[in-house]
C-alpha cells in the first residue's frame, strides 16, 4: 500500500511517502536535504502516530508520549533518502509501543522505542478537524 502526501499537507507532515502499512508494521521514506538530526526523531514519531491512528480508524487522538532506548548517530545534518520502519511491540486501550528504525542504504541511523498515548477527542482536540485531516492523508493511496 502506497500513501503519497501532497504538498499542501507537507507543511505538517515530514514523511514523503508511506510505502507499507500493515496491522503490526508501517514503513515510510523521507528525503532529507541537509536537515538537522532532530527531524529524524520527529519523522519517527509521526510514523508511529500515523499507524496508531490508522489502527484506530482515526476515532481517537494520538500523542507522542516518550522515547526510550534511542540510539542516534553523532552527525549534525541528514541528507539523502532514508527508510523508516515501525513495528508494533505492544498495545493497551490507551498506550501503543513501537520499535522504529531509520536506515539509509541499509545502514542503521536511528533505533528507538517510541510510546504513544491515545485519548478521546475533546474541545481542545476536535474530532471534526483532526479526524478529517488524518483520514485525508491516508486517503491518497496509489497502487
Q: What does the model show?
A:
- The chain is an alpha+beta fold and 143 residues long.
- It has a single domain, classed as Roll (Thiol Ester Dehydrase, Chain A).
- It is built from two helices and eight strands.
- The chain has an eight-stranded antiparallel beta sheet.
- The longest helix has 18 residues, at 38-55.
- The radius of gyration is 15 Å and the shape is globular.
- Residues 1-10 have low confidence and may be disordered.
The CATH architecture would be: Roll
CATH topology: the name is Thiol Ester Dehydrase, Chain A
Question: How many structural domains are formed by the residues?
Answer: 1
- Rough outline: globular
Low-confidence stretches: 1-10
Largest sheet, if any?
8 strands, antiparallel
User: In CATH's first tier, which class applies?
Assistant: Alpha Beta
Enumerate the strands of the largest sheet in spatial order, edge to edge or round the barrel. 4-7-6-5-3-2-1-8
In round numbers, the mean pLDDT is: 83
Work out the number of β strands. 8
Portion of residues in helices? Answer: 10-25%
- Taking all Cα atoms into account, the compactness measure Rg is 15 Å
Task: Report the end-to-end length measured between terminal Cα atoms.
Answer: 6 Å
Q: What percent strand?
A: over 45%
What kind of oligomer do you see?
A: single chain
Give the helix tally: 2
